[in-house]
Amino acid sequence: MEATSQSTPIGGKKHQWTSIEDLKLVECLIEMCNSGRWKADNVYGKDRATGDGAMGFSETLDEIAEEINNGWNDDYDPFDTLDEMNANASMNNNIPSSQTTRKAKRKSNNRDPLVELLSKSMQEFSTMQASASNSIRKLADCFQHEADSAARRMNLYEEIKKVDGLTNSQRLKIGKLLVSNQPHIDYFFTLEEELGN
User: Fold this and answer.
1) Distance CA 59, CA 53 (A)
2) How far apart are CA 196 and CA 104, in angstroms?
3) Where is the composition biased (Polar residues) (predicted)?
């Protein structure tokens, strides 16, 4: 028996491009490249550390900063990734737990107006909170001083009773005189502290 050779390749019959199809394909590829939607030029790692266009760490950081400043990510919409997240979540249910998945990193836009508005609002809130805190502290000090003054007024008559040689009517007159002026009460109690020591 004679062996027969297979004329078709292993992957099945390959498509043969005609010259017209070939020209149309080249036109489409050129159009995609010129439109800016084909981002084959910015593939990270296309030139390894020893390639012709190799960049160091600082050069890479400078390039990233320049891209951010030029607004390379202005058309970024954070809601576009919601569909991808839902699709990935349903696919993750089918993956065995021994496999790990790599999450894609989202690049943030530093010039997002919502982020700027929130940042500005937080700064204003922080400033208002600091000034309110100072005002509240001053009010608390004032209320404490008033509470101390009220306690002194309540103890005034008991302290006047300790002074020997005064009649009740004299004690009432002295108490009335002192109560009418807070600095007099403060002075009276400082004298008592000095005399007591």
Assistant:
1) 11
2) 78
3) 87-101
Range of the domain at 171: 114-196
Q: Which of 75-79, 95-99, 104-108, 169-173 has the highest mean pLDDT?
A: 169-173
User: Which three-class secondary structure state does DSSP give residue 11?
Assistant: coil
Closest CA to 149 of 192, 190, 185: 185
Report angle CA 153, 175, 139 to the nearest 5 degrees: 25
Tell me if 107 is assigned to some domain: no
- H or E stretch at 12: none
pLDDT digits (tens, 9 = 90+) for 155-181: 888 888 888 888 888 888 888 888 888
Confidence of residue 1 (pLDDT cuts 50, 70, 90): very low
Q: What percent of the chain has a predicted confidence (pLDDT) above 70? A: 58
* Residue 78 per-residue DSSP state: G
Q: How far apart are CA 90 and CA 102, in angstroms?
A: 15
- Buried b / exposed e over 132-146, threshold 16 CB at 10 Å, is eeeeeeeeeeeeeee
**Could you count the other beta carbons within 10 Å of the beta carbon of residue 26?**
10
Domain count, the chain: 1
Query: Can you say whether residue 51 is alpha, beta or left, with left for phi > 0 and alpha for psi between -120 and 50 degrees?
Result: beta
Taking each helix axis as running N to C, give the angle between helix 168-179 and helix 182-196, from 0 to 180 degrees, rounded to the nearest 10: 120
